[in-house]
From TrEMBL, chains A, B, C, D:
Pfam families: TetR_C_24, TetR_N. This is Transcriptional regulator, TetR family. SUPFAM superfamilies: Homeodomain-like (SSF46689), Tetracyclin repressor-like, C-terminal domain (SSF48498). Coiled coil: none annotated. The lineage of its organism: Bacteria, Bacillati, Bacillota, Clostridia, Eubacteriales. InterPro entries: DNA-bd_HTH_TetR-type_CS, Homeodomain-like_sf, HTH-type_TetR-like_transc_reg, HTH_TetR, KstR2_TetR_C, Tet_transcr_reg_TetR-rel_C_sf. Residues 8-68 form the HTH tetR-type domain. GO terms for molecular function: DNA-binding transcription factor activity; transcription cis-regulatory region binding. Keywords: DNA-binding, Repressor, Transcription, Transcription regulation. Residues 31-50 bind DNA. The keyword Nucleus does not apply. PANTHER family: HTH-TYPE TRANSCRIPTIONAL REGULATOR RUTR, HTH-TYPE TRANSCRIPTIONAL REPRESSOR KSTR2. It comes from Desulfocucumis palustris.
DNA sequence: GATGAATGAGCATTCATTCAT
DNA sequence: CATGAATGAATGCTCATTCAT
């Protein structure tokens, strides 16, 4: 944990400010002056705690993403049934989108972003998708999920679908009605589109 | 159609160059010098055809996105059965990702991007999701798809899942094996995860 | 007479357009594109007639200033009395300001302008002031004007006062009421401020 | 008082440098690089204190013009007699031209300049002319000056004449012999041209 | 620890000028 | 004679970073 992460951890208000600015303006359009002013400190102070802008951004994002990781692991941990685990994961992702939409935006943006930081976010994504994938494979071995499905592809699908729907909702309706979204995603994931 | 779109339309090579650079380096990290040099023209030439960097970027992206729209509409047009339409849409999206991955990156990046250009991309996204949504609702009326599903949420889900999986594949395996991905997504979408 | 002067002389409409643009926007803020568009010709056409922007500007201004010279010489020529000559000169200057305010602005601006073109305008000014000075000296020799006055200083004074008042009027009242201005300037010049 | 005015006020050397460059090369032909180099600071330093080139120019000119205002008000304040006030005003203007010729050039140039900044300079000019006008009206009420003269026109005349003569002298002789100029202008203003 | 004035490399943009048609 | 697409040198401005206090 770097000096900077420490700084943001101790002062969660400043963390939120950093997330707000970076998520609403993007990395490049956010200036260090703006961050400093929004945080109510001098620019030099930020450079005292962070080596450079990139470190500030990365620390901010890392801290935010670690929250998602904790939420997801906790969600899974509370269940033994694969299906219930999937539901819990969906719930936790949606909750994260609801509570930390700024971070989510940054995360997705960087996931599709340019070379510079993509690797870091790819790793994070892989680990989240792996979380889903593990539950899927576990479920397949237990005979709960169809064995002929490629768990990797399904995990990636579920990951992408949740975030896309959540952001669609946030953008179109301004708010995320979690129950409706959760129910529909669960139905789609578990039973598919076809009428039986 | 602006002067700039004209320029890119007539010289598809330059269009591809613009897409390549913007998708690999991102908007901000791409300099007009680089674009000019890569296109083999003077910087002034670009400014003769485009008002500024933003217009160059937007024209490039718009042209790219219009390709997706054409592909998607053609795909749907060749089928009457709702289920086959969905399959065709998935195929066309994957084909687009395969042939125009750069555009797809830009598209997704901006979809989650900062306020400046988000609106433009949101509209484009909405129109694609609407395409899916219409097919879904048509299928529901025909009794092919489960009537209790929210078509809007499902459309957004399908949209997000396809792109996410495709990019995951491109990032992890460097190439998109379309058949495998298509088959799995179809299975998941049509029948769901559960073993029957 | 250069090719350019010819061009402007033959097409007085284009001359007026050039004066309008240069006087309202200044030399540097006027682009060749603007001039070409306002004249209704292609940029290349202008470069066909003028070597460069500077020549266009100089030809335009020279032509304008020559008008003032003709007006002033005609005014003087119609009188033999020194005092009447002065009145006629004032009238002609005011008339010029009234009819060719654009030229007058350019003239004065350049008179106080930077090094580049100052010399040319200085010469023109000197010649106008000399015109006044000659009349003054003539009048002094004839005993009409006070002999202890420095004719050079007085000529310069009169020149400056006329233009300044005229522009003051144009700027403050939007229009030049020539009679009022002329009367007052004559009174001031001939009798001075003091109550007798 | 803006940050920039502060900067120039504290470091009068830099103020003089700015005046020198702007007056000798004009606004457009002066580059920020030149100003920075002449001042011995980095370009960024200038942009730290001034929002842009225009603000630098305006602050510089404003500061210069305020000097003229102070000089003029001091000159008037030391006298009670209207005629003596006029003489003092003339003296102060000539002194200003002598000490701050650069500012005077900028001032006059802008007074006849293009639309952009003209308004600002017009206001300044009006206030100076008003200064003269007030003294003239005061003198008229006291019976010292001819009552049938339009004070506004006379004030503008006097203003223009002083500056024009002073600049004429500077340009022709390279130096301003103040006594000669002052005496002649006073004679002309007070008694007029006519031999009595 | 904290500050904010100073820096300068980097970049978008402008525009006079050219020249092939 | 006339055109207008192409050029590239020139320049205003930004902003991450440093460092003396």
């Amino acid at each position: 944990m770097s000096k900077g992460t420490d700084f943001l951890n101790k002062d969660r208000e400043k963390f939120k400010i950093a997330v707000d600015i970076f998520s609403s303006k993007g990395y490049h359009s956010t200036t260090m002056d703006e961050v400093a002013q929004a945080m109510g400190v001098a620019k030099g102070t930020i450079y005292y705690h962070f080596k450079n802008k990139d470190e500030l951004y990365l620390c901010t994002t890392q801290l935010g993403i670690s929250i998602l990781e904790i939420m997801a692991r906790e969600a899974i941990g509370q269940h033994t049934d694969s299906r219930e685990k999937i539901v819990a994961l969906i719930e936790s992702y949606l909750l994260f989108m609801h509570d930390y939409a700024g971070i989510a935006y940054i995360f997705l943006r960087e996931l599709f972003g340019d070379h510079n930081r993509r690797d870091f976010f790819r790793e994070a994504t892989k680990s989240y998708q792996k979380l889903i994938q593990n539950v899927l494979e576990e479920g397949q071995r237990a005979g709960a999920f169809a064995g002929d499905l490629n768990a990797e592809i399904c995990a990636s699908s579920i990951f992408g679908m949740i975030f896309t729907v959540a952001i669609h909702y946030l953008q179109v309706y301004g708010e995320l009605s979690m129950d409706v979204v959760k129910d529909n995603i669960c139905k789609l994931i578990f039973h598919g589109l076809l009428e039986v």
